[in-house]
Amino acid sequence: MKTLHKYLITGVFSTLCGVAGATPIFSVTYEAAGVTNSTAAFSTKGIETFNNKAAGLNQTFTSTFGMSGVNAITGTYKNVDIAAQNLYGGADGSYALTSTNSASSATYSLALSSAQPITYFGYWLSALDAGNELSFYKGNDLLFSFTPDAVLSLTGNCTTAGNAYCGNPKTGENKGQPYVFLNFFDQDATGFDRIVFKETVAYSGFESDNHTVGRYVTTSGTELNKVPEPGTLALLGLGVLGLARARKRKKL
Q1: CB 144 within 8 A of CB 106
Q2: Are 96 and 80 in contact (CB under 8 A)?
Q3: Domain that holds residue 90
Q4: What is the pLDDT of residues 111-122, one digit of tens each?
C-alpha cells in the first residue's frame, strides 16, 4: 500500500480550521494499481458491492455490508444512483454514483449505525474527475473533507504513457481517467456516522464501488501520514479541469 507523500502534507493542504477540543486525525492512503479492495487488517469489516442492486436513479436502501452480530455495521444510502458495470465503474458488477442528470451539483449520503465507533471507510474510486468530493461527519459536525482529485499528484497524470492507474482495469477502457482504491483511517478512533459523496461538475458523476466499512487493526504495515481536520485537500493534479471537460456520460 502506498501513502500520501510527506511533501503533500505541507504543500497540498490549505486552510486548516481549528476546532475546540480534540481534533480528529484522518490518514488517507491508496492501494496499488488495479487493486479494487483494501489490503488493511480489520477486527470488524463489511463490504457493499452493489451487485444485488438493480440499476436505477435516486435509490434509498439499507445495507448490512454482509455483516451480522453485535459488532455489525448497517448503513442507509439516500438518493444514490446504481449503474451496471461499464467503462466508468463496476469492480465486478454494479456500482454507485451521484446523479449524472444534474445541471449543478449532485450528492448522495450514507448514514452509518453501529454499537461501536466506525474508524474506517474505503472505496474503489472510478473514473476520477474534478468534481469529486467526500465528507465525513459525526452528527452535524464535519470531521474531514477530501477532494480526490489530489490523487493525480500521487498516481501521476493520465497524459503520461503507461500509467497503470489510468483506465478501467476491468474493461481496459477510459484511459484518460484514474481508477484507484482509497483508504480513510480515523487515527484517534473518534468514529464517524455519515459520509456524503458530492459531484460539483454538471452532468458528471462520482463513481465508486466496494464500499468498505469497519474498525481497522493495521494498515498492512505501511507508515501513514496523519492529517488534522477539518480542512480540504486542495487540487494540485495537472489536467484536473481537462478531466471534467473530457468525460462523457451514458444515462442509466
Answers
A1: no
A2: yes
A3: 2-15+26-224+240-246
A4: 999 999 999 999
